[in-house]
DNA sequence: TTGATCGAAGGAACCGGTTTCCAAAGTCTT
DNA sequence: AAGACTTTGGAAACCGGTTCCTTCGATCAA
């Protein structure tokens, strides 16, 4: 067996995978991950051959391949992901950027994406933008450079900027927003349709005065909801709509409970389930009965919506499916294929027990 | 200005950052990220100098540095993370492995870790092991090779195997379990103490018959809870403990509601908050009043625990803090420092409204 | 004026893989 | 047995950075 010394230019006196820990600490030697050169030397072949064997190239003789595999096994050799990525120009990692990790909505998307990506040997990098527009852009660029693709749930960044960025971010899939002038693939939810379904439901129960607990003003999906609500209020005679600035979190809804009562409305349309929960809880503390005194609806159908008391009437969106479809589209893009048409998911109205007939008022 | 051609061995006729898209597609050229060679050529310096400037080395003359920066700016140059990582031997990414991403407990840890890591310029890779022991090990190794360190919430892998793996996984921080014989840093929760607090609370309310809705049997933290409960039942005269195999998820608790009633116990100690919610909801559907007919406790204090009806009595554990501390320890390890002593977080009993006096039974 | 010292910047090795290109060896044909 | 074709596997370029080592020129002390 002829021992080659490729890749061992450093310590030629010693072919075992040992190396100085760092340039500073020259006293102690410790075992370090063996590299392709060590395996090649051990098997008596070139590094090229080791690479071929590790990647299952059919052009290497079976008995040689076996010898290489044995050597790799003996040394417990694992190819460096980094070096491999650099050479191949691909990392097998994709990134997800969400505004708020504490929102169960994004958690479910994260999960769906993670599982779909994992099924095809890809890992998921997660970053939270904390609703900060400036940071969101930098974060997106940064994350993109760590990975092969991006799923971007970025409701706040203005369209023009997104368009400018998109070249550097590609391949990218947008969540929950579309950029009209562009051909950026996006998966979104038809919030307007969901709101219309909710309003129709409430109207049929006799409600005529609705409060909308608004989400973040810059949020695209909030704007969509507001528009749908206003359109409905204009189209329906005798329909009163009150808007209260609120937020997207639990605490926001909780804090809004008194304001809701003050409006004398008979039903609350909350920005999302989290806000609805907060309001539910706040109203409960104030001794208000739901749905007898007031009805409440949410949006998203996060897992807990079924289990509150009373269970929450809400518009369900297929969060896992969103994650999965995001992966499918990203995967297509990464392979240079067309991502297919944008999907506009239709929310499904789930009528539970937080909505009931409008109470009859003594005027 | 002398134009060097370092890094441009490929297309020497053209110094602009253009390159063939791939080896197969030779017809179309498209703009590609410029590399350090392009910047060096544009600024008329060596690649080494560009590197120094990009990393803020003080040994570069100010006017030269300015020229390099201008060139980088003009080309919109961004150093390749990959190449940088390979050269530096560090990725600025850490991995988190959790058994179940749908558990809010882990979501909060994820969030805490992500934020702490981000604050020091690191990104987070997330992987879900789906409670599969074999996959958990492979996943951990895989994830580790993508990153500089690992936070491992892996309750099921046997201790010996974990010990064997630990060398390859280091630096690693364990969550929610300790491996006695090793010096693996770990952050855990004193589940026994939490259980004792819960039991004491229930006993003081007059409860004498408790059902424990057990979590996954292989789970280390479940074993700790069981042990604490049994110890309490042995130590307290007239204390009856019934154990029901259950699980860790919502649905598990929901399904167990009937079984709970059948035991005639006056209080339920659920494995965690999710299970408690499920049970709460199941009992509600069966027309059982909580806490009047039966008391329920959870564990973890996930965000929703405050907002259920009735709000859940539970043992609170500092999930964000767990994530943050995990980062601190990992960071210490990654810098070759000592991670400090293992921390055993003490749960805090939060008495809410899901527990009340034991009902007086007519025997 | 000369020798020593110091700072700045370039050359080249290196991180650890992949892949092209090519030479050598082996097989088949006539 | 010679020429043509097919495997097989090695050498070396390449991915895109970082950094050690060296050189060159300027400054400073003698």
Q: What this model shows, in words?
A:
The structure is a homodimer of 363-residue chains. By secondary structure, chain A is an alpha/beta fold. Chain A folds into four domains: 1-28; 33-89, 434 Repressor (Amino-terminal Domain) (Orthogonal Bundle), CATH 1.10.260; 92-189 and 319-344, Response regulator (Rossmann fold, 3-Layer(aba) Sandwich); 191-318, Response regulator (Rossmann fold, 3-Layer(aba) Sandwich). Chain A is built from 13 helices and 14 strands. In chain A, strands 4-3-5-6-7-13 form a six-stranded parallel sheet, with helices on both faces. The radius of gyration of chain A is 28 Å and the shape is elongated. The interface between A and B is large, with 44 and 44 residues. Strand 4 (123-128) of chain A pairs antiparallel with strand 4 (123-128) of chain B, so a sheet runs across the interface. Chain A binds a DNA duplex (30 and 30 nucleotides) through residues 4, 6-7, 9-10, 23, 35-37, 45-52, 54-55, 59-61, 64, 79-89.
Question: How would you describe this structure in keywords?
Answer:
homodimer; 363 residues; alpha/beta; 434 Repressor (Amino-terminal Domain); Rossmann fold; 4 domains; six-stranded parallel sheet; four-stranded parallel sheet; 14 strands; elongated; disordered N terminus; DNA-binding
Question: What fraction of the residues of chain A are assigned to beta strands by DSSP?
Answer: 15-25%
- Could you tell me how far the N terminus lies from the C terminus of chain A, measured between alpha carbons in angstroms? 101 Å
Based on Cα principal axes, name the global outline of chain A: elongated
Number of strands of chain A: 14
Question: What is the CATH H-level superfamily of the largest domain in chain A?
Answer: Response regulator
Read across the widest sheet of chain A, the strand sequence of neighbours is 4-3-5-6-7-13
